Amino acid sequence: MTTGRKIQKSINILCFLFVVVISPLEGYDRDMASDKPETGNALTAERILDAARDQVRRFGEAKTNVVDIARALGTSHATIYRYFPSKAEVFSAIVASTMRDEEELARTFVDAPGPASERLTGLVLALHRRKIERFGNDPEMYQLYRRVIDDRPDLVRNYADAMTRLLAAILRDGVQQGEFRIDDVDAASEVVRDAVTVFIYPALVEAAAKAGISMEQAIKRVMATLTVAFRSGV
């Protein structure tokens, strides 16, 4: 065999090894690497939720799946499952995050100066307006919120408990400042919560918005009535 033929044969063998052996191993390495949590981009639960929100906004809840969320993050669905055991848990976490955002909004009225009656009314108006804003500007996420709370009464209960505590804090401050005369603040806070639920429950807010009904004057009337009761003594 001539030297040229030997060289050509060696080249052919190297090409064979690269195509048949080395290339599959590189693919395997990529697959293995993609199955690990990101390090350079610091994959976190919040980044996963952000990617999921983006997918829902673009394609809707029904067409969003864990594989698509993973692809958007440049990782594997197995990695996503290390943070959230199912797509349902991803969606529930998104709704829980929205509820925490509303809780923080409500908390600003607890810490704000001014009469307790004005802060109570301001709190309810702010929550109602936040719901209206989300319904108009973020419809896919609003519908996700509506659907999840039907399936997760525990989230609704936690949200209601948190809001009731914040209402109680404002009422208690009103009692301490001599603005209100309330014997049982906890009971009074539950009365306020129940009276204003119609203004912040997603399905009812949506129904009113679609009918072109503004609920703000009704909110003010309800809160004015409650204020009279609390000032008179209950």
Characterise this structure.
The protein is elongated. It contains 11 helices and no strands. It is mainly alpha-helical and 234 residues long. The protein has 2 domains: 3-87, no CATH class; 89-232, Tetracycline Repressor, domain 2 (Orthogonal Bundle), CATH 1.10.357.
CATH topology heading of the largest domain: Tetracycline Repressor, domain 2
Give the number of DSSP strands: 0
- Helices, by number, come to 11
Radius of gyration: 28 Å
Q: What sequence of helices (H) and strands (E) makes up the elements?
A: HHHHHHHHHHH
Q: In total, how many domains does the architecture comprise?
A: 2
Q: Give the class-level CATH name of the largest domain.
A: Mainly Alpha
Alpha-beta content class: mainly alpha
Subunit organisation of the chains = single chain
Determine the CATH superfamily of the largest domain: Tetracycline Repressor, domain 2
Shape annotation = elongated
Keywords:
11 helices; 234 residues; single chain; mainly alpha; 2 domains; elongated; Tetracycline Repressor, domain 2; 80% helix
Give the gist of this structure.
It contains 11 helices and no strands.
Describe how the helices and strands are arranged.
Elements: H1 3-34, H2 45-59, H3 66-73, H4 77-83, H5 87-111, H6 116-137, H7 139-151, H8 153-176, H9 185-200, H10 202-210, H11 216-232
Helix pairs in contact: 2-3, 2-5, 2-7, 3-4, 5-6, 5-7, 5-8, 6-7, 6-8, 6-10, 6-11, 8-9, 9-11
